[in-house]
Each structure stands twice: as structure tokens, then as C-alpha cells.
Task: structure prediction
Amino acid sequence: QSVLTQPPSVSAAPGQKVTISCSGSSSNIGKTVVSWYQQVPGTAPKLLIYENNKRPSGVPDRFSGSKSGTSATLGITGLQTGDEADYYCKTWDTSLSAWVFGGGTKLTVL
Amino acid sequence: QLQLQESGSSQVKPSETLSLTCTVSGGSISSRGHYWAWIRQPPGKGLEWIGTIYYSGTIDYNASLKSRVTMSVDTSKDQFSLKLTSVTAADTAVYYCARLIGLSLSFDCWGQGTLVTVSS
Result:
């Protein structure tokens, strides 16, 4: 079990909006920044959001991130079938002295 | 454009040592502020950080694997390596190498990953 908790799955229809939560504690999310990764099955993870809410060049503004206290949220608007993937949050845990990932959330675009 | 490529043994016997190398191209492994990491993913499961190394040799390991892991860097070849001893079936995973940007604390570039199977 990860110290970062994500819902195992979320789903929504094309064009709709979805949010994915990442719940942590004062020793991880409450202490430092969060990044999010998208992993299409069979491929390597790809950086989606860094420093809580910044998007790397090339990532559409349909993807957004936020952080409040010990939780972070990834938002995706205008869902497309190509967004179907696993999404992971990640941060540094000061108690474990380790980079920790959430358990991952499978997004299905119905 | 930066690229990372894993290479090494794809099958390892139980109790033996897993060895992988990551070759960095399109950039220098000695770039300041950039760290180099190994991350693994067992089949059907999530991501687990193994360790991170800086070009100077500074290393952080996941405490859960620390007793079995050794990472090293060869700046002359722009490569860094992973050795994991006394492997078991639980070490079967896709192993990724990745770059960690120190400023943004994010893994911004990943290798394609290599599946290592522990089996007799």
C-alpha cells in the first residue's frame, strides 16, 4: 500500500470532465510539491504536471493540477478516448526519505 | 532531444544479481541539477522508486531495497547502472531509468523500460 492514496478507477464520457484525487499526509504532500504522470498501457510514464500545477511544454491545457493541504488533484476537461491511461501522483516523503507514487488511477473514457 | 535507453539482463535466476545500464543520449549525464533514477513496475502494479544518483556519485536509495541495491555512474560514457542482488520472483518488473529535475522535483524524461523476469 502506498502512502499516497488514489481511487483505483474513474470514468466519464467523451467531452466531460474528470478529477483524480491523491491523498497524503503532512510528511509528503503537506511538505512539498506534487507531480502527475500519465501511463498509456504498454508505454513508459509521461510527465503531465509538475510543481503542483505546471504543465510541461506540449501538454494540453485540458490537464490541470492543484494542491491543498495534504491532498492534490488532477483535472482533465474535454475528455478524449486518447486520455484513457493510468495516472499516478508522486512526491517526496520526508519520513521515508523516498520518492513515493500513488497507487495509480485507471481512467476509462466511456 | 534527451533520450534514455535501458539495457541488460532480461532474465535472472532466483538468488542471482540483476544488472541494468541506462545510456543517456542527446544530453550529458553531468548536467548540473539533473539526477538519474531507477524506477520499477511489477506486472499489473504501480510504480516503485528504487534509487537516484547524481553525476558526482551522491546516491539515495529506497530504504526497502537498500541492502540489495547498488547504483553507479560512468560520466565518460553518459551511463548509469543498477545492480540488485539476491533477486526473487517479487523483483520481476519493468525497470525504467529516468531523469529527475532537481529544480522542479519531477521525472521529466523516461526510458522505454525493460522487462526483467526472475525465474529458474
User: Anything to note?
Assistant: Residues 7 and 105 of chain A are 6 Å apart (CA to CA). The two ends of chain A are 28 Å apart (CA to CA). Chain A has a mean pLDDT of 97.
